[in-house]
Amino acid sequence: MGWKDSLEGLRRFAAAPWFPLAVGALSGLNLFALVLSAPLVVLYCSAVLANPRRWFGTAVANAVGTVAGCLVLVLLVDVKGTDFVKDSFPSTFQSKWWKWTEATMETYGPVATVPIAAMPIILHPLIFFAKLSNMSDAVLLGSILVGRILKYCIMAQMALSAPAALRFFGASKDTIEKVKKGE
Fold first, then answer.
1. Secondary structure (DSSP) of the chain
2. Which of 12, 35, 50, 56 lies at a 20 to 30 A Cα distance from 83?
3. What is the tens place of the pLDDT at every residue in 10-36?
4. Cα–Cα distance between 98 and 4 in angstroms, integer?
5. Which of 84, 91, 85, 94 is nearest to 126 (CA)?
6. 180 neighbors 163 (Cβ within 8 angstroms)
């Protein structure tokens, strides 16, 4: 089996109808792992490139997977309190996005939830501050869903038409090169 056969096998794998669902599930898991972001960009873009006609469905599947992970985190916060986020994800407090999310939520309140969710940032601060402000779980998760669908639609279009722009979503040069090659 040569390189060309391996690449074709990967494309068939990424074109499978279940592949976007698997990537979405991994996106939900990444809310707790925090280390899958770069591989998930490659997997997500591979799914889009393998079947460009289903780019919107792939975006929705990824967003639903992310929201499923958010739901688990929200339920854990409901049971264990907001300190659970601080104790379980201490590195998120050192992120520049933590302070930005806090300031944005303080300034704009719940209206900021959708734009924040559409950003290429971790969602822990958003969930933390939404829970502190007693935002309903349905509003929070619905806002995250809308924001993430928007984010993944933009990413899909970038993968299809301007892969170099994926750097704005945190993709490394190596990741962008893999996307350009259709790996």
1. --HHHHHHHHHHHHHSTTHHHHHHHHHHHHHHH---HHHHHHHHHHHHHH-GGGHHHHHHHHHHHHHHHHHHHHHHHHHH-THHHHHH-GGGGGSHHHHHHHHHHHHHGGGGHHHHHHSSS-SHHHHHHHHHTT--HHHHHHHHHHHHHHHHHHHHHHHHH-GGGGGGGT--HHHHHHHHHT-
2. 35
3. 678 888 899 999 999 999 999 898 778
4. 44
5. 85
6. yes
How far apart CA 128 and CA 68 sit, in angstroms, is 16
**Which tokens in the block code for residue 121?**
């940032």
Nearest Cα neighbor of 120 from 84, 95, 93 is 95
Residue holding tokens 């990444």? 30
Which whole number is the average pLDDT over 157-172? 80
Burial (0-12, 13-18, 19+ Cβ within 10 Å), 47: buried
The answer to whether the CB of 20 falls within 8 A of the CB of 53 is: no
pTM as predicted: 0.86
Amino acid present at 121 = I
- List the one residue out of 12, 87, 85 whose CA is nearest residue 51: 12
